[in-house]
Write a structure and sequence with these properties.
The structure holds two protein chains of two kinds. By secondary structure, chain A is of the alpha+beta class. Helices cover about 30% and strands about 20% of the residues of chain A. The longest helix of chain B is centred in the C-terminal third of the chain and has 15 residues. Chain B has a single domain, classed as GMP Synthetase, Chain A, domain 3, CATH 3.30.300.20. The chains are: A alpha+beta, B alpha+beta.
């Protein structure tokens, strides 16, 4: 991976991205911004390492955080401007930052999708029950940007205070725990109905586990993931898990 | 006080092809507010979306704006008559 990119077209000569380290994420970001000589509003931040994995109940403690900061591209800038205007009209005081992350669409050389992260106080109403409002906001924004049926990589993804990222972690954890249970008991397990993108997280999480096979069954919006064992019961310590994801300490308000 | 009509118009105008045909009116009804959205017939499909996906997204966004003021806001879509 190249450290930085030299560029000379259209813009003033200058680097398009810079990498920096710091003892905290914020420190790493401001160092990288300083190197490019730009403000946070002109940048999109890619977190390479938070230094340390976030532990439940603990604030994000970053030891040796590492980030790459990119000069914002036109597509991301347009998305952010549109989102800011929309949120202003909704009278939701908040701040929108651009983040790059996630996996690029499979089998393409597209860049990783642009993630717009909304931060502020009391944003539960933007999330809604299980992220319903957040998904609606994302659908509406992409429609307004004219990306609804464009290339997948062009769509923007919305997140509020990393709600989506946290929720994904929870679903992944749930998948691993249930897979262990299925292998122990040798009995299939049917999960509660979930959204397509959450089901996808489960399928992907367990794709490499030869001990289980996952499938989706039923019709939307009642479609559920079924985890099937591929062999006989392996036995093990008794089951204590209740079958529901634990709520993290900062799972957030739900409306 | 959030201007629900302005919000709805802002969203709708960026979705449709015929901006001038977008008409939005609000009407208080009991404890809730009804937002009547009218778009060109040719834009109906785009505004509604596959199995209502788009209009439901618009409704959810406007509803969320109302939540801040503990108000119920409903968006109704009507075609040109």
């Amino acid at each position: 991976m190249s450290e930085t990119t030299e560029v000379g077209v259209g813009t003033a000569p200058g680097r398009q991205s810079a990498e920096a380290e710091g003892s905290t994420l914020e420190e790493a970001i401001s160092r990288a911004l300083g190197e490019l000589g730009i403000t946070r509003d002109e940048a999109e931040v890619e977190v390479l390492s938070t230094g340390q994995r976030q532990i439940a109940g603990e604030r994000l403690s970053a030891v040796g955080a590492r980030v790459r900061v990119h000069r914002i591209d036109e597509h991301a800038a347009r998305g952010r401007a549109m989102l800011e205007e929309l949120l202003t009209r909704m009278e939701v005081p908040c701040r929108v930052t651009v983040r790059r992350g996630g996996e690029p669409p499979a089998g393409s050389d597209m860049p990783a999708p642009v993630i717009l992260d909304i931060s502020g106080d009391d944003l539960g109403l933007l999330i809604g029950w299980r992220g319903e409002t957040l998904r609606a906001l994302q659908t509406a924004l992409n429609l307004m940007l004219g990306e609804e049926d464009g290339a997948q990589g062009r769509r923007v993804i919305l997140d509020v205070e990393r709600y989506r990222a946290r929720r994904e972690d929870q679903v992944r954890e749930l998948a691993l725990r249930l897979a262990a249970r299925v292998k122990r008991s040798g009995e299939r397990y049917t999960l509660d109905p979930m959204h397509a993108y959450e089901r996808r997280v489960i399928h992907l999480t367990l794709a490499d586990d030869p001990g289980v096979r996952t499938e989706s069954a039923g019709k939307e919006p009642q479609r559920r993931v079924v985890i099937n064992p591929t062999g006989p019961a392996q036995g093990g310590p008794p089951e204590r898990f209740t079958g529901r994801p634990r709520r993290g300490p900062s799972f957030g308000r739900r409306y | 006080m959030t201007d629900y009509a302005d919000l709805t118009k802002f969203i709708a105008e960026r979705i449709v092809s015929d901006k001038d045909a977008v008409v939005v009116q609000t009407q208080p009804r009991g404890r809730s507010t009804i937002v009547r959205l009218q778009v060109a017939d040719s834009d109906m499909g785009k505004v509604i979306g596959k199995s209502g996906r788009n209009i439901e997204a618009i409704r959810a966004v406007v509803r969320a704006a109302g939540l801040r003021h503990h108000e119920r806001v409903q968006v109704e879509l009507k075609d040109q008559k």
